[in-house]
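Fill in residues.
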């Protein structure tokens, strides 16, 4: 396998090429744009035998690949932030139609004010739509996850579309060594496209008509059952990919130094690496933490979380998004999973809108939580803020910013 220096966006493009995608729809938005630019270049050079459809909006981009996939083509698109929100109607249509396809979401904050940097608000907004949603930690995993996404989405036990999430700029525009598999290996791993039905002029099939209420209900039930089935498929696909490439990521979750940990930090995305560095530092201080990295947020890996949390003193959840008036979305799901367990639990909101969270910041939050649990015996705090360091060190600056809105 050749090793190439690839940005996360280029890793996506090479994975799409290796997956023999037939239709790509493109509309630019930072920080996603270089994915579809690179795919357009590959098509122009003859490296990818596909048609690229240039459209006037993100809504149309997803509509185009939704139509292409419904007609039997392996299809792909990518977006970020406001583009994903603009797609939102079609996001629901693609999932509800049980159409296998893959979309890369390069995570980015949502305005106003305008912000092009990373947080997870955009991707977390899709949790209820029926898409499988994964999050990569680094560029090698971006490539591997994208190839796996087609296999998972097209599995007859699943037949749901899948999002591959990668953090804007941190992964999308940062180069790293990536093992790019040979085409023959991917062809062995990824069978010809499968889907539940094909719409064509010859088929007696209509989509989008009004259905009886009970039929609509059962379609939702079917989607939920398929999402549960996807858990097994994801684990199987990860193991098979590991046998072919030597790279297995743990399936639904990755657990770092969890086995003998007293506390778990639950997290997803690229900043998981910084959390692992913090855990190594705390271990030197005698504070035994582990990191439970969620590779998939849909389907929700409840069983895995419950198993890894068993016997722990506390679970600290880091969210790079917030449900206004509520809590961090990961915290809400973890809290539901661990309901009744009497494990101490805290949710931390951090890193919104591109604010950097360094290993020392993670260590600070982890150290404080462990100390509170040891002192009180039980802690339940749904929402704590890890503010940017300059505001933690000088709270008067918070009041200065607040005066802008008054």
């Amino acid at each position: 396998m050749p090793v190439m220096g690839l940005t996360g966006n280029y890793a996506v493009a090479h994975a799409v090429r290796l997956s023999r995608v037939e239709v790509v729809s493109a509309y630019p938005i930072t920080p996603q744009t270089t994915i579809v630019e690179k795919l357009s270049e590959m098509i122009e050079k003859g490296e990818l035998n596909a048609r690229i459809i240039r459209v006037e909006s993100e809504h149309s981009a997803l509509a185009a690949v939704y139509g292409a996939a419904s007609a039997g083509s392996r299809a792909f698109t990518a977006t970020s932030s406001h583009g994903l929100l603009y797609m939102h109607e079609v996001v629901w249509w693609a999932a509800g139609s049980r159409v296998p396809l893959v979309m890369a979401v390069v995570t980015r904050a949502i305005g106003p004010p305008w912000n092009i940097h990373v947080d997870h608000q955009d991707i977390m907004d899709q949790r209820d739509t029926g898409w499988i949603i994964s999050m990569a930690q680094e560029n090698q995993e971006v490539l591997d996850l994208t190839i796996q996404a087609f296999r998972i989405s097209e599995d007859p036990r699943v037949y749901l579309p899948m999002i591959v999430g990668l953090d804007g700029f941190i992964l999308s525009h940062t180069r790293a060594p990536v093992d790019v598999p040979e085409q023959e290996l991917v062809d062995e791993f990824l069978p010809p496209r499968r889907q539940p039905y094909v719409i064509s002029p010859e088929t007696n099939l209509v989509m989008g008509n009004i259905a009886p209420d009970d039929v609509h209900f059962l379609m939702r039930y079917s989607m939920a059952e398929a999402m549960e089935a996807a858990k097994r498929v994801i684990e199987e696909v990860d193991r098979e990919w590991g046998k072919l490439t030597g790279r297995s990521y743990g399936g639904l979750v990755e657990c770092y130094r969890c086995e003998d940990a007293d506390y778990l930090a639950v997290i997803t995305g690229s900043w998981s690496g910084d959390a692992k560095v913090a855990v190594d530092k705390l271990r030197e201080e005698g504070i035994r933490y582990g990191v439970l990295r969620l590779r998939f947020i849909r389907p929700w890996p409840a069983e895995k979380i419950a198993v890894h949390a068993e016997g722990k003193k506390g679970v600290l959840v880091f969210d790079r998004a917030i449900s206004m008036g509520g809590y961090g979305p990961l915290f809400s799901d973890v809290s539901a999973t661990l309901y009744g367990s009497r494990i101490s639990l805290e949710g931390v909101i951090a890193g919104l809108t591109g604010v950097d969270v360094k290993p020392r910041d993670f260590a600070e939050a982890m150290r404080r939580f462990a100390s509170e649990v040891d002192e009180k015996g039980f802690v339940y705090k749904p929402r704590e803020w890890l503010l940017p360091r300059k505001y933690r060190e000088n709270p008067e600056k918070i009041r200065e910013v607040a005066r802008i809105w008054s």
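Residues 3-245 form a domain with the Rossmann fold fold (CATH 3.40.50.970).
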